[in-house]
Amino acid sequence: MREKRIITAALTGSIHTPSMSPYLPITPEQLIEEAVRAHEAGAAVAHVHVRNPATGLPSADQELFRTVAAGIKKRCDMVVCCTTGGRLGEPVENRVRVVASLSPELATLNAGSLNFALFHIAENYTEWKHDWERNYLQASEDFIFPNTFLTMRQFLERFALQDTKPEFEIYDFGMINNLSFLIEKGHVKKPVYLQFVMGILGGIPATIENFVILLEAARKAIGDFQFSVCAAGRTQFNLCTTSLMMGGHARVGLEDNLFLEKGRLAKSNAEQVAKLVRIAREIGIEPATPSEARRILGLKGLDKVNF
Ligand code: KMH
Ligand code: ZN
User: Is the pTM of this model over 0.85?
Assistant: First the structure.
């Protein structure tokens, strides 16, 4: 039997802006459609951010989250993984609200603070569809993504109340220590699920060498765990393939990379999922179904969400 691995589709995120690709999903209808197509291509998990449907500005609106999560649930049994990273500058309290309101099976928990810089991406574009886009990106030159120990502890308390599993986003080495501390103090139950987020300016560069060392450091500090990787931009498929080869899961999607290959925009999240599934099958790996993903990650089940 082939090994089963979880593919996550990060549908839209809060980094890319509408001017960068006509294929970036914005409205709830587009997000739902993208999730369903990604599922058909082999993704078991949809990582969900929402955007203002009129402007594309990343949003923390609970009704938008509910519409998207419920719309996905109506059409397929994917695991919905809600963001608590939100968008640049969103108050911490707003970011975590989605856990209490939707009680998802899985949600991100960013495992430390970092400079989270996107201003350099703005240099590649000259024409903007919306007024907010350029300023949003440029403001990140002076932005710290805040995830203090207090924030992490408070987020974990909310997650525990809902039995929502945290997906720990690890952007650099120090965050492994943060997580190990939270486990030691009893704030986090094992087994944990780690998402290595590589290639953000402010975090660790997305190289295979760095990934191997990160993984080794995490094993020393935490022991056994489930892990996945996502990588910004053109390193996406190299790192995802490496993760599959090293026993991990992988996340693709337009949140992390707008391209399918150099110079060719991905026309959908599903195109990226399908590419990773082709690679996976070549090396004897089969994408996990949502039920298999639930078993692998130990999730509470789709009947226990509130959407
Ligand atoms: N787009 C970054 C904020 C999250 O959503 O919480 C990485 C991320 C984290 O996916
Ligand atoms: Zn995200």
Answer: yes
